[in-house]
Amino acid sequence: DGGGIRGISSLLILEAIMEKIRDVQGLDHMPRPCEYFDFIGGTSTGGIIAIMLGRLGMSVDECIRAYKKVAQQAFTPKKTRIFPASPSGAFSAKALEAAIKQTVREFCTQPDCVARRKHDPTTAATCPHEEMAAVLAITKDNVDARPTLFTTYDTSAALHGCTIWEVARATSAATTFFKPIRTGRDGIEFVDAGFGYNNPCEVLVEEAQRQFSGRRSLRVLSIGTGLGDVVAIGNTRLSIITALKKMATSSKKVAASLDG
């Protein structure tokens, strides 16, 4: 799920799960999530984590350390302004981009290997990033439409011409935090899918059903970023706006529908 810096809690939960897998299977090493999950996805901060675990094949420990570095570099507020909720965002997009690029350089020496593997299968021998991963973002000009899925595999709706760092920026371009990003061959402008799709599980389950249509059932692990606040609508305009924002970014309804 999305949730800003609270994404670290998702990783700690996942770490405990991987430790349990190690103990049950009697392994002498900590297994990587990409070795046990066929499909890893997320939105916003969860999208960055999905890229690290799925696209880059990182261990949870590596992901936690990299995530902390990205957060420290990216979430340094700009100089205070009169209007903090400016279109350019409260935090530096360049700092976020630099942090993500550094992570990609460290964990993938061939960042374009997914694109090249389609034309040269031998690429997998030197950069074996074959795990299926998907992250969500929405177009700035049509925020109430279905989110765009950026995937490591080809689909009929695939957005071509995007690098890893661009996808990470698109899924994390939270309104008021980071400015939108234009990416892809058509230069479409994206913001994160936190409004309406902060819990991406429903969309990702539908995608998994398309990709694994031959399977009779799917086992889904959905990890959130903590319990949300109780939403109450007050009597002032500000309280109403605040309540609407909380409702738009809530993950509860999706979780409840999947439980049902």
Automatic annotation (TrEMBL):
UniProt domain PNPLA: residue ranges: 1-205
Cross-referenced Pfam families: Patatin (PF01734)
Keywords associated with the record: Hydrolase, Lipid degradation, Lipid metabolism, Transferase
Catalytic site positions: S44 (nucleophile), D192 (proton acceptor)
Motif GXSXG, chain ranges: 42-46
Cellular-component GO terms for this entry: membrane
Motif GXGXXG, chain ranges: 2-7
Superkingdom of this protein's organism: Eukaryota
MF term (GO), any: transferase activity
SUPFAM superfamilies: FabD/lysophospholipase-like
GO terms classed as biological process: arachidonate metabolic process; glycerolipid metabolic process; lipid catabolic process
Protein name in UniProt: Acyl transferase/acyl hydrolase/lysophospholipase
